[in-house]
Structure to design on (429 residues):
């Protein structure tokens, strides 16, 4: 009796892991399939442009507003800490480095996952549930080339731009609070920032980070949508999974990339 | 549904804003340094001890940034540190210029200070500076200070025969 329950538990564990690995392999093959069929999204670029409107342009407001507020909070908290060590002029460095290196790509990635990733999954999932994808296949239109790849590339292009905008808005927010409100010296705010922030080391690495996050988020989003069970429940579950999985992978990837980029030499 | 023209316009605005933000980060925040590439020449200097000097630390003369540290190596023959600096071409220095490792502020970053000499020949690409002064190591300074204090104190208490 006891043995049976243990073996049943082990069997479930095994089935869970096999399923996970199977899904991972399926997702990897799906990724290759997207790359193979992405010729259309560049030849007929207006397909990608149309998706960039939904993923990029419609995310502008949330990115701008949250970037501004994150920067303003950084300005307040950073000043509060730095003033204890008598180095409140380093506020610009603190705000710029934390935004450009970490917060810009990561927070923009999390917002992008919940704002655009979930929408992509829901859209593709619903298209599948209402058999629009099958209908396309009937008309000899490849749904991956026509529906999936443009969304993928739109996300990959939009994400670095959104992250850069987030960082820029955050630095502006830090400037508003630090210089305009609290009264840190404007000249040293900018000049210390400029001497401490390196283009290759900091900004380019931030862009690379956001690019990788963009690939991961949109890949997960289109895969979950394409793989969703064609029911209302299935689509809602897939949308939830998109947000959870892509947020977690953004955070995990961020650690890996940071460890590779800033080993503190 | 939005017409294709408005859609293109919005996406264009989005891309322009995104690249504008990137440009802002590059120019205003990082201040893309003008020292990279062809408009600079390399000079070397050997130091007994470079302290906490880092690659890309500024090279200043009279307080003005004239170049950056481009590399730091260890010379296994003389057991000295070799610091390579790239100096912007429009700044020329005499051949007998001396280099010092200085610290900005009490605990700030370290940089190289160049003091121009009086020679009529200017430094060329690949030249080495002859006169250098190492970084001030705080621990050495303190121990020297303590030694001299101890020596003074000892001298006072004993009969002042030997020392003076």
């Amino acid at each position: 009796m006891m043995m049976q329950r243990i073996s049943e538990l082990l069997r479930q564990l095994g089935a869970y892991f096999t399923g996970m690995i199977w899904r991972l392999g399926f997702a990897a093959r799906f990724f290759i399939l997207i790359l193979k069929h992405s010729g259309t999204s560049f030849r007929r670029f207006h397909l990608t442009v149309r998706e960039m409107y939904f993923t990029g342009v419609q995310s502008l407001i949330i990115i701008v507003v949250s970037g501004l507020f994150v920067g303003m909070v950084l300005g307040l908290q950073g000043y509060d800490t730095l003033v204890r060590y008598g180095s409140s002029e380093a506020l610009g460095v603190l705000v710029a480095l934390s935004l450009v290196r970490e917060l810009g790509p990561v927070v923009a990635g999390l917002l992008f996952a919940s704002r655009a990733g979930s929408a992509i999954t829901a859209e593709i999932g619903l298209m599948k549930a209402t058999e629009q994808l099958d209908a396309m296949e009937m008309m000899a239109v490849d749904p991956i080339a026509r529906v999936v790849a443009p969304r993928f590339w739109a996300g990959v292009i939009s994400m670095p731009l959104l992250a850069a905008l987030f960082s820029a808005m955050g630095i502006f927010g830090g400037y508003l609070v630090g210089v305009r409100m609290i009264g840190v010296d404007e000249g040293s705010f900018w000049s210390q920032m400029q001497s401490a922030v390196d283009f290759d080391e900091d900004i380019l690495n931030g862009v690379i980070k956001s690019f990788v996050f963009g690939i991961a988020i949109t890949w997960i989003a289109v895969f979950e949508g394409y793989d969703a069970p064609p029911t209302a429940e299935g689509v809602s579950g897939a949308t939830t999974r998109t947000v959870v999985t892509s947020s977690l992978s953004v955070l995990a990837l961020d650690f890996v990339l940071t460890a590779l980029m800033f080993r503190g030499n | 549904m939005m017409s294709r023209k408005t859609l293109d316009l919005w996406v264009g605005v989005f891309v322009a804003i995104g690249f504008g933000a990137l440009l802002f980060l590059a120019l205003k925040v990082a201040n893309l340094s003008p020292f990279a590439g062809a408009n600079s020449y390399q000079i070397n200097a050997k130091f007994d001890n470079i302290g906490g000097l880092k690659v890309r630390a500024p090279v200043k003369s009279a307080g003005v940034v004239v170049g950056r540290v481009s590399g730091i190596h260890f010379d296994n023959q003389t057991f000295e540190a070799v610091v390579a600096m790239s100096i912007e071409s429009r700044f020329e220095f005499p051949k007998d210029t001396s280099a010092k490792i200085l610290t900005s502020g009490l605990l700030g970053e370290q940089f190289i200070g160049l003091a121009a000499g009086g020679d009529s020949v200017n430094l060329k690409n690949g030249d080495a500076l002859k006169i250098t002064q190492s970084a001030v190591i705080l621990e050495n300074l303190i121990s020297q200070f303590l030694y001299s204090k101890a020596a003074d104190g000892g001298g006072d208490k004993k009969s002042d025969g030997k020392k003076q």
